[in-house]
Design brief:
CATH class of the largest domain: Alpha Beta
Largest sheet: 5 strands, parallel
Number of domains: 4
CATH superfamily of the largest domain: P-loop containing nucleotide triphosphate hydrolases
Structural class: alpha/beta
Distance between the termini: 49 Å
Bound molecules: adenosine-5'-diphosphate, magnesium ion
Number of strands: 8
Helix content: 40-55%
Radius of gyration: 24 Å
Strand content: 5-15%
Order of helices and strands: HHEEHHEHHEHEHHEHEHEHHHHHHHHHH
Shape: globular
């Protein structure tokens, strides 16, 4: 029964959320009408109680109509010398609110979906300062564990500047970080929040996923509590919003717009992450979009081999701190770093699986590793070329910056590389002309069309250029 309910729950909330919150959920005991489930920490208990208990109860009742009640209990620590330090940093007023309000909140959370809460609560030290309220911070997502590389150097530098600047010293505002999934946005944003909370200036920090922001506002409005919520948010120094692409709903966006204007106008720092650039957030209120575009937007790319290896090594170090008997041989680590190229997420999955396997198959061969991780390796299918890769390679080759490539500048030294990059984007990716235009600083699709025709014409009469393009294609596919 428990396994069936787990499977249903996983299907409902998605594998990411499931792994984060229910991966360590176990059946504790069961009577005719009461099911007890256990989790390792009180933090997980209150999180599941607040957000998912109704959903879980309904699932059990669907499977067995006799079940009246589901309870979450905390199981005692089994091993490990350091007991987890707990702190409830989700909602400041969760403990004191009336049961009816709590139920309303739960329902609102469920009707809003469950995308953006994949951070794992971990058994490590949480920041000592108290954030006002927000989504949970994962203490493992710190600057210390964030691996620097060419693909994220600029974003990391900006993030550190902000975390160190404290209140009032606003340099890049808002800072907008974007990348496709699994490339470290959440990690970096949480690192900013954690560092800012721990800084001696103790700025008032709020870290929120856009989903959480919507949920919090929806319930506040329902409970006639919106004023005090706004009052709270008005008085913060640093607002960090993750997964901005999920912000939906007219009135919520209106509220967000107010908040954004107010914070920015009073020189309070705002950091936002999304899976696309600000100008590509099409479902967003145009006023919000334009304010987000008024700051600095930085894109992060995928980790290269050295970074992937370093990420794995640091993961192993952390795991070995908990349990020194754990190990993964160096040749296997580098093999994994070489073959898992998709994103940090796949890398993390691969690492966890390996660690688990090695505990009862210590002599894993490389062939066996490939077999185990086959589904995470995308070696079989042709690699998908990304517009970011094209821009990066072309910019480097012609010695211009990527910013210049997507800028409005029309000097010859930039126009030609830009046209070549657009041509390559059209020939190497399935993207449409308007989409490519957007990715090149919001240009019209006719501009892209023109660029592609132009380069096609030039190639036919210019062997030097056609060789150059062949070279670029090889570089892009590396
Ligand atoms: P995103 O929010 O962009 O989807 P995440 O921040 O959730 O990505 O990253 C996915 C996983 O990859 C996390 O476990 C994260 O710690 C790891 N990761 C990604 N980039 C880095 C990096 N530069 N250094 C260390 N870990 C990273
Ligand atoms: Mg994320």
């Amino acid at each position: 029964l428990f396994d069936r309910v787990s499977a249903l729950l996983k299907a409902q909330v998605g594998p990411d959320v499931f792994a984060s919150w229910f991966g360590r959920l176990k059946l504790h005991s069961m009577s005719k009408s009461v099911v007890r489930l256990s989790v390792p920490t009180t933090f997980l208990k209150s999180w599941i109680n607040n957000r998912y208990l109704d959903q879980i109860t309904t699932l059990f009742q669907q499977e067995d109509a006799e079940i009246l009640k589901v309870e979450i209990v905390v199981r005692s620590a089994m091993r490990g010398t350091r007991a987890p330090i707990e702190a409830d940093i989700t909602v400041g007023d969760a403990a004191t609110s009336a049961p009816a309000a709590a139920t309303a909140r739960r329902n609102a959370a469920q009707s809003l979906g469950h995308h953006a809460t994949a951070a794992l609560p971990a058994a490590a030290k949480l920041p000592v300062a108290t954030p006002l309220f927000g989504s949970p911070l994962d203490p493992r997502y710190s600057f210390a564990s964030f691996v620097e590389g060419s693909s994220n150097r600029v974003a990391l530098a900006a993030a550190k500047t902000i975390a160190e600047a404290g209140a009032g010293a606003v340099r890049f505002n808002p800072l907008f970080i974007h990348s496709s999934v699994g490339l470290g946005k959440t990690h970096l944003l949480q690192a900013i929040a954690i560092a800012a909370i721990q800084s001696p200036r103790a700025s008032r920090v709020v870290y929120l996923t856009a989903e959480y922001f919507m949920w919090r506002f929806a319930t506040a409005i329902r409970d006639n509590d919106a004023l005090s919520l706004k009052e709270t948010l008005r008085n913060i120094d640093l607002l960090v919003i993750d997964d901005m692409q999920f912000l939906q709903g007219k009135s919520i966006q209106h509220e967000f717009c107010h908040l954004l204007n107010m914070l920015l106008d009073s020189a309070k720092q705002v950091v936002v992450a999304a899976d696309r650039a600000p100008w590509e957030l099409e479902s967003l209120d145009p006023r919000v979009r334009s304010r987000l575009q008024g700051g600095v937007a930085i894109e992060m790319d995928g980790p290269d081999y050295e970074m992937r290896l370093e990420i794995l090594k640091r993961r192993l170090d952390v795991a070995r701190e908990e349990d020194p008997s754990l190990n993964i041989p160096a040749d296997i680590l580098s093999h994994v770093a070489r073959s898992i190229t998709a994103s940090g997420r796949e890398l993390e999955g691969a690492f966890n699986q390996l660690l688990f396997r090695m505990s009862f198959e210590p002599q894993l061969s490389i062939e066996r590793v490939d077999e185990l991780l086959g589904h995470l390796v995308n070696a079989g299918e042709p690699r998908r070329v990304r517009i970011e890769d094209i821009q990066r390679v072309v910019a480097k080759h012609y010695n211009v910056s990527r910013q210049e490539l997507v800028s409005n500048r029309r000097t010859r030294v930039i126009v030609k590389p830009r046209q070549i990059a657009m041509y390559l984007a059209k020939t190497l990716t399935p993207r449409s002309f308007p989409e490519i235009g957007r990715r090149f600083g919001g240009r019209d699709h006719t501009t892209v069309l023109h660029a592609v025709r132009k380069i096609e014409d030039l190639i036919s009469g210019d062997t030097k250029l056609s060789h150059e393009i062949e070279l670029l294609k090889r570089l892009i596919n590396e």
